[in-house]
């Protein structure tokens, strides 16, 4: 349960103000079918984060157990610091809108997550917990917790959430996890 809760909370916090959350807002403005958007995000996240958790688990088996905690926890601290840098809104072409909300959300979310903070965090969580299933479920739930409200409430929600404060809280959580891991390993 610790794996699921940690994965959910860290990704949900890291996702607030992230480029994929901005992508959710953009897609919600373009498509009326909110269910298709959510399902596209769900499938893209399961695939992307499943592969990421597997990679983390695989890499954990590739390093000697003596150095793994230092590598993983140091990376948590680095991601925490990276979270302090706000993402920039990227222009997304609407030439693929003809393929429908589900397919557009699936492809754009999968691509947007490649190399993103939450994907790297998922790799680290996979390495730390060595539980592909629970890390994937937790990070997927975290992604949905951060993005589904944006799909339904859009700009009104983003205007009320102090993104800078949430980014600082997310950074604090990642740095605290890294420091705790370093101290206890």
Which features does this protein show?
185 residues; mainly alpha; 8 helices; 0% strand; globular
Question: Can you summarize this structure?
Answer:
The chain is mainly alpha-helical and 185 residues long.
Describe this structure in words.
This protein is mainly α and 185 residues long. Helices cover 79% and strands 0% of the residues. It has eight helices and no strands. The protein has helices spanning 2-15, 19-30, 34-62, 68-82, 101-113, 117-129, 132-160, 163-184. Helix 3 packs parallel to helix 5 (101-113). The protein is globular and about 50 Å long. The mean pLDDT is 83.
Helix amount = over 70%
Number of separate helices = 8
Q: How far from one another are the termini?
A: 20 Å
Return Rg in Å: 16 Å
Proportion of beta-strand residues: under 5%
Instruction: Report the strand count.
Output: 0
Q: What's the SSE pattern?
A: HHHHHHHH
Categorize the overall geometry: globular
Largest sheet: none
Quaternary structure annotation = single chain
Spans of at least 5 consecutive residues with low confidence: none
Q: Give the helix/strand class.
A: mainly alpha
Query: Mean pLDDT, as a whole number?
Result: 83
């Amino acid at each position: 349960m610790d794996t699921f809760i940690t994965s959910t909370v860290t990704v949900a916090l890291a996702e607030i103000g992230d480029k994929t959350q901005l992508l959710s807002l953009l897609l919600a403005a373009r498509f009326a079918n909110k269910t298709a958007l959510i399902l596209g995000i769900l499938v893209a996240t399961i695939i992307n984060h499943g592969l990421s958790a597997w990679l983390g688990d695989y890499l954990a088996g590739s390093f000697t157990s003596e150095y793994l905690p230092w590598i993983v926890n140091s990376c948590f601290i680095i991601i925490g610091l990276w979270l302090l840098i706000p993402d920039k809104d990227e222009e997304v072409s609407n030439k693929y809108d003809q393929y429908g909300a589900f397919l557009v959300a699936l492809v754009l979310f999968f691509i947007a997550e490649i190399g993103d903070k939450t994907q790297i965090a998922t790799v680290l969580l996979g390495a730390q917990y060595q539980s592909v299933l629970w890390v994937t479920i937790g990070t997927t739930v975290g992604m949905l917790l951060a993005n589904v409200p944006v799909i339904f409430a859009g700009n009104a929600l983003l205007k009320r959430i102090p993104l800078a404060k949430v980014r600082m809280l997310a950074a604090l959580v990642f740095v605290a996890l890294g420091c705790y891991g370093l101290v206890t390993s």
